[in-house]
Amino acid sequence: MLYTINKMTENDLLSKIKSGDESILEYIYLEYRSEFLIWLSKKFNCSEEDSRDIYQVSIIIFYENIIQGKLIQLNSSLKTYLFSIGKNKMLEKLRKENIIINDLISYQNIAQLDSELLKDFEEDLVLVLDCLRHLGQKCIELITSFYYKKKSFEDIAKQMGYDSAKVARNQKYKCMNKLREQVLSKKK
Prior knowledge:
0% strand
């Protein structure tokens, strides 16, 4: 089987996957896995676990693109296509992680915490990040929408299903109080 696969063009491999030949997908998975993991780890200085997760997602997207007809013919090498999916997924992951960090770096805007809480910025940054993660998805979404995305309370109310801008403002106030309380309790 391996000899047959080696004689196929990359576009033939795509056709075989589209027709349901899972052995081709398995071959591709194994063929590029080690090189991908090493490349991603070096390029983005990420953990082995993150590299594996991104590779899994990249293979799934590659497969879905073929099955859904988004990828019919390669304009680059299969390796280049697969690695570019991985690069884009890693950049997306880093952007999501940095939303909270970027907001906290401009802490006057996001948290408006008392200056006494910010004596040692690095320690406080880690502490606030940890507390923010424990607030719950609704509070994180509300705080991010208001401080990072600069959305109005009217837009936030529509986005999150609140009855009015006043309710959204009140919820933000409650979330910020929860955040302050958590930070203060952990600082003691």
